[in-house]
Amino acid sequence: MSIEELIASVNDRLTPTERRIAEAVAADPSLLAFGTVSDLADRVGASPPSIVRFAAKLGFGGFRDLQSRARDGVSRQLASRPGHRVRQPHGSVAPVRGAVLDAVQATFETLDEPTLEAIAQRLVQARNVWILSGETARVGAQTLRSGLAMVRPHVTLVEEHDVGRDLSDADSDDAAVVFDFARYRRSSTTAARMLAKLDVEIIAITDGPLSPLASLARTWVGLGVPAVGPFDSSVPAVIAAELIVAEVVHQLGDTARERIDQLETLWEATGTFLRYTPRREHRPRTRTRTR
């Protein structure tokens, strides 16, 4: 098990001091991997014995054993970065297919009906819906924005350079959906913290209980994100977004149907879509060159 999984397994038994230690480890894994007991204690405002007790609670014989596991985790994380992956030999597509299919199945299991219903209910009730994301989850955020904007008003995908301007209107009647996975973008986490201070309800689509977004969110969803080539897959985030939109449409009922009908009328009136009838037989033209 990873350090994050070990912490999650004892999360309900951690003291307030141990929770601060866990949060510091999540924010900066290198502090645990390469620092000393005193370094970590100073960072969280705890005593060195508290650090040792934290290690014991996770099942380690002492701080050195915990540090050794953390170093292994950091090494694996560095090996999973695009700069490392792109230098690896190109292998069979079969392992990638298996990893993506497993992630898809896990996404459906994680976003069960009660979870979807709870998320959708808040998005239906909110005055404004703000959507933020890191790079890996960008396609999922765009999918959610596109779907929600078709069935309800006041849905905004917040761009990194527009955070201050866009969120100046946010308040406690709003909800925010934040997509991000390790390596977390500073901008999405900072904006989520700002919204949380405004009492905006945060819904986090992320990767585990130690994500910086999980502690800000009333509801968070942990997704597995497999690697495809040098980059992380966008598939789990897109599936999550589509499932959320489908449940919002269901809860809106006639309101969603009327809005979509109005959109269809506007699209027809403005000629939005190309009218195209494919030919039954299409033969490519051949050019005859003359000298």
Would you write up a description of this structure?
The protein is α/β, with parallel strands linked by helices and 291 residues long. It folds into two domains: 77 residues, Arc Repressor Mutant, subunit A; 174 residues, Glucose-6-phosphate isomerase like protein, domain 1 (Rossmann fold), CATH 3.40.50.10490. 54% of the residues lie in helices and 9% in strands. It is built from 14 helices and seven strands. It has a five-stranded parallel β-sheet with strand order 2-1-3-4-5, with helices on both faces. α10 links the parallel β1 and β2. α2 crosses α4, α8 packs parallel to α13 and α9 crosses α13. The longest helix has 18 residues. The chain is globular and about 75 Å long. It starts with a helix and ends in a 22-residue tail after the last helix. 30% of the residues are buried.
What is the topology?
Layout: H1 3-9, H2 16-27, H3 29-34, H4 37-44, H5 48-57, H6 63-79, H7 82-85, H8 94-110, H9 113-125, E1 129-133, H10 138-151, E2 155-157, H11 163-166, E3 175-179, H12 186-197, E4 201-206, E5 219-222, E6 227-228, E7 231-232, H13 235-252, H14 254-269
Parallel strand pairs: 1-2, 1-3, 3-4, 4-5
Antiparallel strand pairs: 6-7
Helix pairs in contact: 2-4, 4-5, 8-13, 9-13, 10-13
